[in-house]
From TrEMBL:
The keyword Membrane applies. Belongs to the nucleobase:cation symporter-2 (NCS2) (TC 2.A.40) family. Keywords: Membrane, Transmembrane, Transmembrane helix. One of its GO terms (cellular component) is membrane. This is Nucleobase-ascorbate transporter 6. It is a multi-pass membrane protein.
Length: 530
């Protein structure tokens, strides 16, 4: 077959690949002016509240806790998220990432709640305390796997084999895989969720075209504008009696006064370690939680790469990912000490917010951590913001998770999309990443338990939880295929984009790595990255 003629000078050319995202207003090391940085930090705080409220609201009632316990767990989760975010941004990956609650840890926590040894407890408060101590013990053991893999450098060796091609399904499904928290959440109260979604698109994408103020005010602060408008509208609906005769479930989702958080929260309270009592340990539950911890580690790796892209940094070196994972292990250990009934991972919605605002500054996220700690201590004020109806958050998630998914797809610019090998790995990994968890989740929804159903609940979780995670399945399939099919062929090396990341596989190969990821206070002398 005859080859295509070479392109003429004036013919259209494909867009050249870019190692760093160019159109970011403030990159990882360049903070905005202080007033702007504080407002942007507060915006990050508002966005992370959704997950911080959703997880305890689902778990605490099952544990036997009431509104008081729920408010205290949310307060504790918020407080610990602030500490963990500061640790991660100063000493971990150094990326502008918020470290918050993780949905991955919900399934093994529910298994602990349903454990037989708590069923004979008649007093709900006592059941809550005993269950909380059980989750604390499991999380203490689970945190070790991330600390060992991270700080020993084992995870660095795994990530070094990652190419742009195998990273695409992992990062994409870290965002797209959370679709169940998007429009299904909006639809729980469509009259407030949909206006939030439409207004945020209008403020961030259309208003900047129409109204010019020299600064992209509407795009950058779109979350604060839209949440304020829709929250006020929801308040008016609530006090006007629009939901007076609505079913209880509708009232919980749509009203601003049904969360029970403001009444349950104390005015001032500082969470402290072992506030629920001494942790209790169960070997099976610890094994299940360790497996979950490993899945959270894989998902966080994808979120780290997405955050580095939206912060306009170069590709994050494997040694820095490994260091970040080690510090995430410490974060889970802190969670277990304080008793949050949940582990920690990167808040995916806040990575999406970096993209929406075009601000990837590390300082902004550190300021948001300050807001988390401040409002966790001032319980009533924190509870006021935490009582924003959840469909408003779901409206925002539709945009934030889409941005993270799109970031994954953007790494295809380094791959040869005309290669059949690329098409197979990409298509098969995406398909299995969606199809396998769909089977596991459907089976669980119908039967009430997963496809693996033995007498040992912890063993069931060790198999069911990994295969219910879309990014984990897709990442595993892509990573395995990409490192086993025709790997010794030089053309294939270029097809998978492996050569693009060569200079970032070692910390010292590119000067920009030091600029973006080196530790503060000259700590690199004592803890050198490789």
């Amino acid at each position: 077959m005859a080859a295509a003629p070479p392109p003429k000078a004036d013919e259209l050319q494909p867009h050249p690949p870019k190692e760093q995202l160019a159109s970011v207003s403030f990159c990882i090391t360049s903070p905005p002016p202080w007033p702007e940085a504080i407002i942007l930090g507060f915006q990050h705080f508002i966005v992370m509240l959704g997950t911080t409220v959703i997880i305890p609201s689902a778990l605490v009632p099952q544990m036997g806790g009431g509104n008081d316990e729920k408010a205290r767990v949310i307060q504790t989760l918020l407080f610990v998220a602030g500490i963990n975010t500061l640790f991660q941004t100063f000493f971990g990956s150094r990326l502008p990432v918020v470290m918050g609650g993780s949905y991955t840890f919900v399934a093994p926590t529910i298994s602990i709640i349903l454990a037989g040894r708590y069923n004979n407890e008649a007093d709900p408060r006592e059941k809550f305390l005993r269950t909380m101590r059980g989750t604390q013990g499991a999380l203490i053991i689970a945190s070790t796997i991330q600390m060992i893999l991270g700080f020993s450098g084992l995870w660095r060796n795994v990530v070094r084999l990652l190419s742009p091609l195998s990273a695409v399904p992992l990062i994409s499904l870290v965002g797209f895989g959370l679709y169940e928290l998007g429009f299904p959440g909006v639809a729980k109260c469509v009259e407030i969720g949909l206006p939030e979604l439409i207004l945020l698109v209008a403020f961030s994408q259309y208003l900047p075209q129409v109204l010019h103020f020299g600064k992209p005010i509407f795009g950058r602060f779109g979350v604060l504008f839209t949440v304020s408008i829709v929250w006020l509208y929801t308040y008016i609906l609530t006090i006007s009696g629009a939901y007076k005769n609505a079913p209880p479930k509708t009232q919980v989702h749509c009203r601003v006064d049904r969360s029970g958080l403001i009444s349950g929260a104390p005015w001032i309270r500082v969470p402290y370690p072992f506030q629920w009592g001494a942790p209790t340990f169960d070997a099976g539950e610890a094994f299940a939680m360790m497996m979950t911890s490993f899945i959270a580690l894989v998902e966080t790796t994808g979120a780290f790469i997405a955050a580095s892209r939206y912060a306009s940094a170069t590709m994050i070196p494997p040694s820095i990912i490994s260091r970040g994972i080690g510090w995430q292990g410490i974060s889970i250990l802190i969670d277990s000490f304080f008793g949050t009934a949940n582990g920690t991972s990167v808040s995916v919605e806040n990575v999406g917010l970096l993209a929406l605002t075009h601000v990837g500054s590390r300082r902004v996220v550190q300021i948001s951590a300050g807001f988390m700690i401040f409002f966790a201590i001032l319980g009533k004020f924190g509870a006021l913001f935490a009582s924003i109806p959840l469909p408003i958050f779901a409206g925002m998630y539709c945009i934030f998770f889409a941005y993270v998914g799109a970031c994954g797809l953007s790494f295809l610019q380094f791959c040869n999309l005309n290669s059949f090998r690329t098409k197979f790995i990409l298509g098969f990994a995406f398909f299995m990443g969606i199809s396998v968890p769909q089977y596991f989740n459907e089976y669980t929804a119908v039967a009430g338990y997963g496809p693996v159903h033995t007498g040992a609940r912890w063993f069931n979780d060790m198999i069911n939880v990994p295969f219910s995670s879309k990014p984990f399945v897709a990442g595993l399939v892509a990573y395995f295929l990409d490192n086993t099919i025709e790997t010794h062929n030089n053309t294939v090396r270029k097809d998978r984009g492996y050569h693009w990341w060569d200079k970032f596989r070692s910390f010292k190969k590119d000067a920009r790595s030091e600029e973006f990821y080196s530790l503060p206070f000259n700590l690199n002398k004592f803890f050198p990255a490789v």
